[in-house]
């Protein structure tokens, strides 16, 4: 049974208009900037917000179809992890997790049993008796996760389920979440900001901007061939639109590139920041692109330094700390950027 | 805790709150000062006082239960649904509050009395007659006290975040389960406040009770009725009875509230 | 602030059962004494007595029972001696058509009939007890009301089959209530007393008003309402 | 919205809430059925009715303001500080509720009367005397109505998340500013509920008023007192007066609440 | 004026006991797993929680010193961004930001002016009139950021200020936050889960575990020489404790390494996952470590694949997708891990 959702929702000046399908066992990640409508889409699928037009159905079981059908959330068999947890403050952690099984008719002992085993899975068995207010932010998020998963819903909706977890716990919970998703065979819709979470957990990524789908596909495909600036920044690629003619691409916003494979018509041009070399003087040599730039911004990452460069076109470069010292990189410094033609990917726009 | 978590109470709050407290409590001091202490014991012997006190507590508690059963759903309806004319309904709920209690009693007689709109059928078909019975006392008290519960609970419901009900729904809870297991506990402070108001108002009810249920010792003579009648002949006894009523009600409230709201802040 | 004797305000505290008559008397007194206003505060006699004892600035007190007047006298709040200015006799009141087929005081001992009486603490209740005792009836009332008005309401609405109220109340209630005169009523008469008060802001006018209540004109107003002369 | 956001109202809520609503409103229907419609106009002419109505509205509103000024800080004190004996204090606040209003009036006389504990000094030193004045009506109504405000607001405060006050403090807000600009708006539904209860209770107040302030037309005769007097002479007029009081109060509440709470859910 | 905080706070079974100093202009990041006590420390500095022992002071201005001194938060001149925003629901976005200046005595017009300029900085000028409830999660977080920064506090406390921001906005807000921190010269204490945020924004990183400081230092220093597993995972290094003797280190939990520089006594051994080679057979050759491992977990990241390997010792390896395909990596697969001795760093434990 496949989840089909054709969602149109109007909220003030904002309009959400997108179509989604999620197959059994499939994990679809909804990725998009703040305010893109990810949470709105998730609420519409959960039944917390009726759609204004369109349809939500699980195969032949119609959940929402104006103006006739509207199945309330408690009869949809969905599990939701909310962005700000929404744990019940008056119940203990264990009772929070046992709430779903209880509400679906399980007896108290059985529900607690189930809840306890889930708390173990998320590593919080020892906090079972605590109140949500006494939990740290990350602990609360893990309880919310357990609470949604314990009912083994047909559709699992996760709104930034890992956002509040720290790096070390995240690794663990992410992989155990991955295992569980693989196990239960349901349909998962995952809203996240973190491209890594999406890449690791999702079978398919749907990129939403301004309430609309701008790109979708397998994680590797999206990562390799971003179609908007947002996606490019997300996956850490330099991305430009241009018009190809042979091995030359004239960029829409100024600048030109020489590429390895000849093409024609509108194309995307992409290359990773690590492919960019920085030099104090212009560099010569066959199939190589080189143009003057100015340092806008320097950020030290764990192992590399990312340099934002203004120019025609602007570009991101990843360099080693040694290069930073050698070139005395600091905002305002004029340099030359160079990219080998073989490093530049082009694909139809 | 050793030191206050957040500095001292500001004067602008402390001053009026103390004046307010004094305003509510000094009259009580006046009563205590005037109480016939020397003869208090002898004035309070006799079975009537105990009888009236027991009747008062019983009827007020039953009336409160009735108000909870009918009033909490009503409050929910007013707070959480999109009923047309909700604003007017909400205002109409306050009617028994504004009505002078004696008129309220008359209104109840007009409806539930032996010849009342509804009462005549109750009487003819089921042989049930509420006036002059203990059940009538409960009905009169509930009528007068219910608005307090409804309005206080509605206010609490409006202040509660409805997204928790949404979370419960996604966990499979019907509206009823979500209401009982999520909403109700989260509005507990407001509900307790409303219940206290309701119970206390029912306990102090006089006008509607005597008009609708009459006054017969052991059956419908609650403490306020006893107090009122004592006032006619023996103000000292009336004050003594009032003090008994107050002590008992304060004791009940102190012990119950501690149990209901536990160690909450 | 006391006004000159010729005019000013007379403040009167009067029992609630005197509402109609004292309103009328006040108007007539004002007509007869231009420049004088009569302000009457009606309430239960004992409540009024408490207010006077606690220092209410009143000129005249008209009470519905000797007991409540005694409270004021004991507090030394009265100047001179209270005087009885009217009396009221008990009567059986039944709803229009007499559905309970009540004929006399004997029916008050019937368990099956619904009977209302005044509570013994209020004057009409004391009078009723006296009447029933002298008739040798062991009454089986269903309710002991806080005042005559409450008893009358129950009769008017048909909630009780019979009750004992004052003759004046039966007259005032009009068509909805029927009265059955009592032979024993001679034994169940209630006195109404009036007095000027020691701390009267306007003692002269107070005395004049009391005199007016007890005058021929006053008595005729009271008689029209069904009161007996003292 | 085209369809309800979350299904229908469950029967378990709908049924009792409708019974509750009927219970509160049917007596009103009884009054309306008995109202002397044919002579209603003539019974309500004369300046007294307008006078009493105006006095009622004025005094109830002033009493409500007094209750807000004194009661909201008191509620805050009870909800947010660690006063010793807070539980007992909270129960004591309900005292005027349990006290039969007439006894409350007597208590006020004992304290604020010309011979009262406090009143004698007010009278001797400042020449102020509250009983039998319009100010006395306000005091009596405030005394009876304040507990409703205090308890409802305290309930709302307990349900409000104190961390928002913390956030305000870190932004430089004193407790007073945080209270006024953060807490107060966030408890608005509860505060409105409490204010409505308080105002309505003050409007319907009878026993304490007639005892403490007397019954002087134009000065202290509020609508409930006028109703009481009318009942002595003309029950039809009493019902008519009650209906006027109800219509006006419902109208005021409907129009004010819509303004106060706006389009909130 | 330096912020000195010696904090001891007891919360039930949890005890926080740490000492912090923050110099003017300095940004200190508090990094630690869920429940480590980061938020608790921040609340103690803000004055929202009195310390049970110790002292909080800004140079000579004592803020908290039991049992005598306690300065309430509104007189401490701190700005706080809370983990779950705590925006005032009844005020518009603009009024939320203007709240601080207003509370500190600025007139309405001036406060709004300031608020508006800050909303522009965080890219939300067009949402000024909205209510917080109508904001998306990330928008709300940015408003909270603006609200805390607008009062230009002497001490700025941030509890996961960037956690809810999406990747593209994050880059922008992070760098503008960096600029502002550099500008205002105050003391900043930043709680975060994200080592990248800490590395980029902080001058010094303090690692907290179980309520205590386990390591602190400059970001590069911490990244290079982690002292606990948590820190190692955080910065993506393999870390072990062992006993060195010459160029051999015997690991505490089993296994041994040959290293380039001779050492003696207890040491930490660290190397990046990218230094690990994976082979189907044992590999020979001079100074090289090689041992049998089994694949436990494979995670696809944007450009590389991270493989978790069980063995003696267990190890993380970063490999290219090509290697994954070639070796048919999947859980349970037995392999040989190899690390060149020159890639292994040792430093005293
Ligand atoms: N109740 C509401 N009324 C009006 N507009 C709303 C409401 N709720 C959300 N919006 C608007 O709808 C748009 C989409 O919001 P949504 O919460 O779905 O975004 P999101 O993609 O989840 O963002 P984030 O990643 O920041 O959580 C936003 O522009 C938001 O301002
Ligand atoms: N009110 C409280 N009562 C009892 N224990 C509490 C309370 N608040 C927090 N704790 C406990 O104190 C510890 C530290 O919590 P804190 O919120 O400071 O962690 P944190 O480092 O901020 O974690 P996170 O990164 O998940 O937000 C936790 O173990 C938590 O359970
Ligand atoms: O007239 Mo009275 O004092 O109510 O019996
Ligand atoms: Mg969202
Ligand atoms: Mg935290």
Automatic annotation (TrEMBL), chains A, E:
SUPFAM superfamilies: MOP-like, P-loop containing nucleoside triphosphate hydrolases. Keywords: ATP-binding, Molybdenum, Nucleotide-binding, Transport. GO terms for biological process: molybdate ion transport. It comes from the Bacteria. SMART domains: AAA (SM00382). Gene3D superfamilies: 2.40.50.100, P-loop containing nucleotide triphosphate hydrolases. Residues 284-348 form the Mop domain. Pfam families: ABC_tran, TOBE. Transmembrane segments: none annotated. Residues 1-235 form the ABC transporter domain. InterPro entries: AAA+_ATPase (IPR003593), ABC_SmlMolc_Importer (IPR050093), ABC_transporter-like_ATP-bd (IPR003439), ABC_transporter-like_CS (IPR017871), Mo/tungstate-bd_C_term_dom (IPR008995), Mop_domain (IPR004606), P-loop_NTPase (IPR027417), Transp-assoc_OB_typ1 (IPR005116). GO terms for molecular function: ATP binding; ATP hydrolysis activity. The keyword Oxidoreductase does not apply. PANTHER family: SPERMIDINE/PUTRESCINE IMPORT ATP-BINDING PROTEIN POTA, SPERMIDINE_PUTRESCINE IMPORT ATP-BINDING PROTEIN POTA. This is ABC transporter ATP-binding protein. The lineage of its organism: Bacteria, Bacillati, Actinomycetota, Actinomycetes, Pseudonocardiales.
TrEMBL record, chains B, D:
It is found in: Cell membrane. Signal peptide: none annotated. The keyword Cell membrane applies. This is Molybdenum transport system permease. It is a multi-pass membrane protein. Its main location: membrane. Residues 53-256 form the ABC transmembrane type-1 domain. Part of the binding-protein-dependent transport system for molybdenum; probably responsible for the translocation of the substrate across the membrane. Keywords: Cell membrane, Membrane, Molybdenum, Transmembrane, Transmembrane helix, Transport. The chain crosses the membrane at residues 12-33, 53-79, 91-112, 132-153, 190-216, 236-256. The keyword Cell membrane applies. GO terms for cellular component: plasma membrane. The lineage of its organism: Bacteria, Bacillati, Actinomycetota, Actinomycetes, Pseudonocardiales. Belongs to the binding-protein-dependent transport system permease family. CysTW subfamily. One of its GO terms (molecular function) is molybdate ion transmembrane transporter activity. It comes from Actinophytocola xanthii.
